[in-house]
Amino acid sequence: IFRRLSGSDAITTAGFPKHSDTCRAPTFDKILIANRGEIACRVRLLDTLINFEHMNSHTCKKMGIQTVAVHSDVDSSAVHAKMADEAVCVGPAPTSKSYLNMDAIMDAIRATGAQAVHPGYGFLSENKEFAKRLAAEGVAFIGPDTHAIQAMGDKIESKLIAKAAKVNTIPGFDGVVETVEEAVKIAQEIGYPVMIKASAGGGGKGMRISWNDEETREGFRFSSQEAASSFGDDRLLIEKYIDNPRHIEIQVLADKHGNALWLNERECSIQRRNQKVVEEAPSTFLDPETRRLMGEQAVQLAKAVQYSSAGTVEFLVDSKKNFYFLEMNTRLQVEHPITECITGLDLVEQMIRVAKGYQLHHKQEDIPINGWAIESRVYDPYKSFGLPSIGRLSQYQEPLNLSNVRVDSGIQEGSDISIYYDPMISKLVTYGATRAEALAKMEDALDNYVIRGVTHNIPLLREIITHPRFISGDISTNFLPEVYPDGFKGHQLEADKRRELLASAAALYITAQLRRQHLCVELGDGRHAMEVTKSGDVFTVEVDGGTVEVSGQWNLASPLLPLTINGSHRMLQFQLRVLSKLAAELNSYMPEKVPEDTSSILRSPMPGTIVAVSVKPGDTVAAGQEICVIEAMKMQNSLTAVKQAKCPLQTRGDGGRGRSAGRAGIKQDL
């Protein structure tokens, strides 16, 4: 939250705020940002809320507001630390010793003289003790007061308050579940399926769906462990799981004078492991009457806890448009940019104004829905969508050359994606006058996004937004498991598209070699022989029984290739192996690598910390039995045996509670 803390409140027909060259009413001289990554960089990247008009106004400087970054030792060279006016190290890499270290952050506030703190989201953003400590030192917390944080941060209390405020709620047990056996009994009384979730949770952490008694026992254990690790509070609640719902949330905005608005909805149904992947605003599903009812109930809840700031009320919506309160997030939401796009309101600016004591400028009737906005969260989808990728970004290029595209990121070429923090690389946002226009722009932006060095989910995001079910609006929170029941395996090329890709690789190779050749291109497990000829600027490629003509400007230094293939424009980026005919023939004599037999090995799919070991040396384990639990990137993953085997008396790799798994992963012979 560094570079854009001001701007005009005027709502334009394009859905974006006009930026004034005159300073607004005074707020704060210096703000400390108690966060990292893309949210800590959000304001610099959003100097104009979106780069649609390619303006470059640093409105924080216009207001005379200085910014302070906090960072861990491994983040000393991070983008958010380098771009701030001041930066203070608050501890080593683990979040508990840095970004959750209240003592160190309070020291940074005193040392820099910051008058206010914006917490972003995650970390201390919904920590009432942090807000209390700030208030005790006369430092403004850019968020709601401690009463609202406590009331809405506790899912048990928030549900009771919602009921009293006449907000629709999900049937369930209105209390804390103390033991595993109590959890099983309550689940049986409610009726399966049920949702087990952390009372103090959020962001998909500490949540498990249970369909039977055994899953309830396992879910209770994992949810309580994740809740304790993520929030320092292992209390759990159980409620009825609404199968195949939509996840739709309402953005609210309230001041300290009793005024509150609902800023329309966000459709957040495309999820994996209860974490959102693609969001859009507005929703294709809501009619004006349902939107109004949801908005009014969200405002009723906000007023019931005397809420002041930006917040989000989340609902589950069934196929008949019945909606049920899920939770309220008392902070800026990750997906807030799409609301800014369709309303023209700068939510960060509004939060700062409210924290200073100003009244809201707008009335409910002033809040528009102008156009359509879509957000894609860029990170790793593979291994059944569940396990993020780590590594160094060897090449990184955002599609900011395109109009109506916004990228919220906190990284750059050479940045590391580490095990210590959230694996999200960026939020890619596109805007259009219509949904079709916004989707077309998103497809173009994904094609122009270059990320090398770590795996990422851009192929999945592109598959989602071009899938017929998504285009028609036929979605629910089960979209990903239904469409990809075995996990996403990558885009499956049709014959003509495969020929186009092969031909482009061959043409690029010939451009580099400057001569005609008979070639062989490897794609997946296949090898494809082809003949390439060049006439002027056009390459003619004979491949797989077809002819493909390829032309374009061959900039061999660029990762993006704008090509014309059989008369159609394509934007390509690929990494294929191209061999000469002789090299391909000789390659056939190379011995094939025999795949490793992993049936007797338990290997961690990613680096992490061993938080539990469930067996002892010498134990005989059954197929599917849990061996240990790995925690990485705020999530816990159970590693199980793939066959019946016996644990050895010694291990290969790091073992024991609290040890870290190295980059090669844990390797344990059974």
Automatic annotation (TrEMBL):
Pathway membership, UniProt: Metabolic intermediate metabolism; propanoyl-CoA degradation; succinyl-CoA from propanoyl-CoA: step 1/3
GO terms of biological process kind: lipid catabolic process
Domain Biotin carboxylation: 27-485
Annotated keywords: ATP-binding, Biotin, Ligase, Lipid degradation, Lipid metabolism, Magnesium, Manganese, Metal-binding, Nucleotide-binding, Transit peptide
Domain ATP-grasp: 161-356
Cofactor: biotin
Comp. bias regions, Low complexity: 661-670
Catalytic activity from the UniProt record: butanoyl-CoA + hydrogencarbonate + ATP = (2S)-ethylmalonyl-CoA + ADP + phosphate + H(+); propanoyl-CoA + hydrogencarbonate + ATP = (S)-methylmalonyl-CoA + ADP + phosphate + H(+)
Subcellular location as annotated: Mitochondrion matrix
GO cellular component: mitochondrial matrix
Pfam families in the cross-refs: Biotin_carb_C, Biotin_carb_N, Biotin_lipoyl, CPSase_L_D2, PCC_BT
One Gene Ontology MF term: ATP binding
Main location: mitochondrion
Location of the region described as Disordered in the Swiss-Prot/TrEMBL record: 649-670
PROSITE patterns noted in UniProt: ATP_GRASP, BC, BIOTIN, CPSASE_1, CPSASE_2
Record EC number: 6.4.1.3
Name of the protein in question: Propionyl-CoA carboxylase alpha chain, mitochondrial
